[in-house]
Design brief:
With 198 residues, the protein is an alpha/beta fold. It has one domain: Metallo-beta-lactamase, Chain A (4-Layer Sandwich), CATH 3.60.15. It has four helices and 14 strands. The strands form three sheets. Strands 1-2-3-4-5-6-7 form a seven-stranded mixed β-sheet. Helix 2 links the parallel strand 5 and strand 6. Helix 3 packs across helix 4. The longest helix has 15 residues.
């Protein structure tokens, strides 16, 4: 687990179901975790900076280890309302709406295109934007790319919709791009997202 920019901690774990590495983030000052995988790697940072009070999901599929965070730390798990139908096995999840200001002053923005609940989280206090599944970057040397076509119902239409959303999001003030799938882009994230959106 490492601090990739002031107040933004990043860690990677293999997702227990899909068996690929996925990214999670902790914002100690805001006491917020985004898209968490197993908490064990992050425990030393929580012990130093304080346990999270809130878990924010960038889409319904990123519940991951949220239940462990709720149980261990008493954190409240939150997902956009359009994704709430996913939680039918006793998960305790609070809905939010696009445009809402969430804990830590974080604002939820609609991405859509790939799924109705695809969400971007703008974090003004950290100059950051967290995005879900539309864009990936598996190595630090890779440019941003789309998730594979197999994960899209209509790939070309979905890519057009994602580009449109990312162009809009690239107008927000941020420097750090936090990806759920792949390596984050610190300090040059806005420029990278704008170039990717075309």
């Amino acid at each position: 687990m490492q601090e990739i920019a002031p107040g933004i901690w990043h860690w990677v774990e293999v997702h227990p179901r899909i068996k690929i590495p996925v990214s999670s983030y902790y914002l100690p000052d805001e006491r917020v975790v985004i898209d968490p995988v197993g908490p064990l790697r992050a425990l030393p940072v929580f012990e130093e900076h304080g346990a999270p009070t809130d878990v924010l999901l960038t889409n319904r599929h990123h519940y991951r280890a949220s239940g462990e965070f709720a149980e261990r730390f008493g954190a409240t798990v939150r997902c956009v309302r359009e994704g709430m139908h996913e939680f039918t096995h006793g998960e305790v999840v609070e809905p939010f709406d696009f445009g809402d200001e969430l804990p830590g002053g974080i604002v939820a923005h609609r991405v859509g295109a790939i799924c109705p609940d695809e969400t971007a989280l703008h974090i003004p206090s950290r100059e950051a934007l967290a995005i879900a599944d539309g864009a990936v970057r598996m190595k630090q040397t890779d440019p941003l790319g789309f998730v594979p076509d197999a994960f899209m119902d209509e790939p070309e239409q979905t890519k057009d919709g994602l580009r449109e959303s990312y162009r809009r999001l690239a107008e927000l003030p941020f420097r750090h791009l936090l990806l759920a799938h792949g390596e984050p882009i610190a300090f040059e994230g806005r420029e990278a997202l704008a170039a990717f959106a075309g």
